[in-house]
């Protein structure tokens, strides 16, 4: 059965939809900001329509682009930050490699060993990540327990090391700022589902901004995204 074109039956052309989605996911803009920007270009697009586009196409773009990401290094930096969902603070687990390339993310209402293990397993399963030679974390007591469990289950190489050295995580703490800056115009999310969908787009655009996609220079992404989504 032939897969349906993702832009079929849409009122606007694919490049206009992707432009709005990309701008929202890349820059600190609200949906109403984008509505105004489009109106200045003689395109009347309601902010709720742009919201629906983001919810629909952020996961789709993530699905299309992830198989084309470059391999990361074997030195990981793992940390958590906070974002608001339903007016409550929740935990956003994130990881980058020694070169600052994004590995993965995981949103959770809890910060414990079970969540840390789930996140590390998700990151290990990604096709573009390399088995870690070393994982650097903060002083969260959950990580040594999870690290030993994964080694015992032979899901991590025996040679892998865990380091709890705070200053080595400055790299990922700086990287958090890009994501946090994007969440501010919307003042949080209304549900975990919408948060996850939007964060998929935020993280993907962050990867593209860093030049993590094969055959795409930094800042030159729209044409590649359009071609992958067709």
Automatic annotation (TrEMBL):
GO terms for molecular function: DNA binding. Keywords: DNA recombination, DNA-binding, Transposition. One of its GO terms (biological process) is transposition. It comes from the Bacteria. Residues 63-226 form the Integrase catalytic domain. Transmembrane segments: none annotated. This is IS6 family transposase.
């Amino acid at each position: 059965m032939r897969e349906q074109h993702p832009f079929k039956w849409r009122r606007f052309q694919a490049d206009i939809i992707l432009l709005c989605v990309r701008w929202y996911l890349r820059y600190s803009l609200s949906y109403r900001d984008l509505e105004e920007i489009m109106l200045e270009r003689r395109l009347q697009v309601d902010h709720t329509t742009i919201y629906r586009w983001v919810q629909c196409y952020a996961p789709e773009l993530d699905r299309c682009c992830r198989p084309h990401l470059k391999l990361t290094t074997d030195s990981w930096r793992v940390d958590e930050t906070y974002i608001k969902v339903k007016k409550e603070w929740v935990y956003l687990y994130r990881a980058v490699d020694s070169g600052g390339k994004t590995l993965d993310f995981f949103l959770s209402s809890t910060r414990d060993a079970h969540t840390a293990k789930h996140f590390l397993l998700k990151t290990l399963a990604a096709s573009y990540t390399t088995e870690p030679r070393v994982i650097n974390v903060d002083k969260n007591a959950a990580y040594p327990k999870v690290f030993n469990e994964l080694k015992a289950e032979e899901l991590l190489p025996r040679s892998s090391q865990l380091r709890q050295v705070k200053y080595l995580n400055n790299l990922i703490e700086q990287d958090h700022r890009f994501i946090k800056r994007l969440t501010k115009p919307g003042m949080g999310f209304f549900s975990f589902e919408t948060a996850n969908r939007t964060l998929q787009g935020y993280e993907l655009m962050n990867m593209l901004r860093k030049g993590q996609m094969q055959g795409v220079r930094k800042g030159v992404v729209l044409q590649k995204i359009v071609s992958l989504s067709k």
